[in-house]
Write a structure and sequence with these properties.
Layout (H helix, E strand, L loop, with lengths): L2 E3 L10 H5 L5 E3 L4 E3 L19 E3 L6 H11 L15 H4 L5 H4 L10
Antiparallel strand pairs: 1-4, 2-3
Length: 112
């Protein structure tokens, strides 16, 4: 199994998750992060750290789409292991639905 980042990270990007990951398997896009499913060791420590509750285990229903999404972008974006400021609209965007189809950016973040 693996943990994956889901819709509610988009536009928030709090980055609390990256500091606790023992294997540095988070990757940074312009307005979201993903987890590399093949690098995640399923420790679960990142899940409760996310203020947006965006990190889920792939054992939950209907996670196939998110596993594929995380795999795709983890191979395109740079690794991130240092916490940064959240995006400016993080509080406003937290809980907004359908962000993958509206505001998601495929552009890479800065990483680091
Ligand atoms: Fe990293 Fe553990 Fe979260 Fe996987 S479950 S992304 S290994 S902190
Ligand atoms: Fe995103 Fe939550 Fe991490 S909002 S950046 S998965 S702390």
């Amino acid at each position: 199994m693996t943990y994956v980042v889901t819709d509610n990270c988009i536009g928030c990007k709090y980055t609390d998750c990256v500091e606790v990951c023992p294997v540095d398997c988070f990757y940074e896009g312009e307005n979201a992060l993903v987890i590399h499913p093949d690098e995640c060791i399923d420790c679960g420590v990142c899940e409760p750290e996310c203020p947006a509750d965006a990190i889920r285990p792939d054992t939950e229903p209907d996670m196939e789409k998110w596993v594929a999404f995380n795999l795709k972008y983890s191979e395109l974006w740079p690794v991130i292991y240092t916490k940064k400021d959240p995006l400016p609209d993080a509080e406003k965007r937290d809980g907004e639905t359908g962000k993958l189809d509206t505001i998601f950016s495929e552009a890479p973040g800065e990483g680091g």
